[in-house]
Amino acid sequence: MNRWLVVRAMLLAFCAGAATCAPAQDNSKKEETCFESRKGATQVIKREIRPGLPNVRCSPTTGAVLWYGDPFEGTVPMARMPLLDKIAEGQAVVKPRSDKLNFLAQCGTVCHNGVMPKGFPKDNRPVPIPTMEAMVPDVKNLQHGRGRIWCLECHHSTKRNALVDHFGDPVSFDQPQQLCGKCHGDKLRDWRDGIHGKRIGEFTSTGKKRWFTCTECHNPHDVQDGARNRGFVALQPEPPPQLPKGMKDAKHEKTHPIAH
Questions:
Q1: Is there a contact between 28 and 37 (Cβ–Cβ < 8 Å)?
Q2: Which pLDDT does position 228 carry in this prediction?
Q3: DSSP annotation string for 176-243
Q4: What is the mean pLDDT of residues 243-256?
Q5: Coil, helix or strand for 17?
Q6: In 3-state terms, what secondary structure has residue 7?
Q7: Which residue, among 240, 257, 200, 159, has the nearest Cα to 70 in the 3D structure?
Q8: What was the pLDDT predicted at 233?
Q9: CB contact burial 198-228 (16+ within 10 A = b; e otherwise)
Q10: Are 224 and 143 contacting, i.e. CB atoms less than 8 angstroms apart?
């Protein structure tokens, strides 16, 4: 009888030791990140707004956002724009990006604390500054304006954490459309009329919508990009939707549902 007690104790000890020595399982899930319009500029971390409702669904093909649980999450009212005064307050919103701009706080308080920098040029021709070139490499070879503009066409001269309009007044980095329209009036008109850019939200024309601002789709330091030397680099397209079971082709799409 004592022998069986000894064997039992040895077995229990062995099992306990095996359980202790077994590698711990990592139950943490890897963070899934996708982008909204331009890779590297509008990253969104996937999470749950509430149990069973994710904030976004990401494309397994391109890594872009395919669907929103709440298209207005994290948005603020869009700044007042000319010819958009008929839109009711709060019906047009944008998503702030200031917190995603790594150097914004440093630019406004550390290096350019409300004063003209030493050695400020007397004309509109930039002076090479090694520190700036190291921080923002594309500044040295600015691909915007084809050599006819420089930094302070867009950035406020003393408030470097702000952009600047035609009157010299500061413009928030979260409302870049107020700046870009200075030179790109035709694009601003098309964006205002809904034929340029991207909007998500309520389907009806008077419904609440999130407007994507200029710099969410375009890199302002490198807009002459890609083989087209303009606009932005083309994104990889999504695959076509699958046909319903039993349907061989999509010829039905060539027939208009209303006879003419």
A1: no
A2: 65
A3: THHHHTTT-HHHHHHHHHTSSS-EEE-SSTTS-EEEPPHHHHS-TTB-S-TTTTSS-PPPPPPPPPPP
A4: 83
A5: helix
A6: helix
A7: 200
A8: 67
A9: eeebeeeeeebbbbbbbbbbbbbbebebeee
A10: yes
